Amino acid sequence: MGAVGRALLARGLTPVLPSGHALERQRAERLAAAVVGSVVAPPLRLPQVAALIARASLAIGVDTGLAHLAAALRVPVLALYIATDPALTGVCGTGFVRNLGGAGTPPSVQEVLTVAAQALRA
Fold first, then answer.
1. In the β-sheet with 77-81, what is the strand arrangement from edge to edge?
2. pTM score, two decimals?
């Protein structure tokens, strides 16, 4: 999150980190502390999270329902895979959707930044 978050901030974007429960919130707060200028979203219900995502310029996330929701809302999505195979559960949609990495092969920071730049130009 550090290098990617700082690169997004340099482009004028504000990384927003949602969380679903206390442990996720603690993780989001640690990540936000490492990227000054990012924001931890307050606790939100699903309709509120959907409204937040719908206003995003770009969604970058791991294989969770929120990445799939972003694709359904036609927000450009980069879904990052580290432990699972995107061929099995990858995010799909009719907008800009890219699944990066895979089981045992996480995407590099440079790959994420390159594809994020493509998404922001699309």
1. 59-62, 77-81, 97-101
2. 0.92
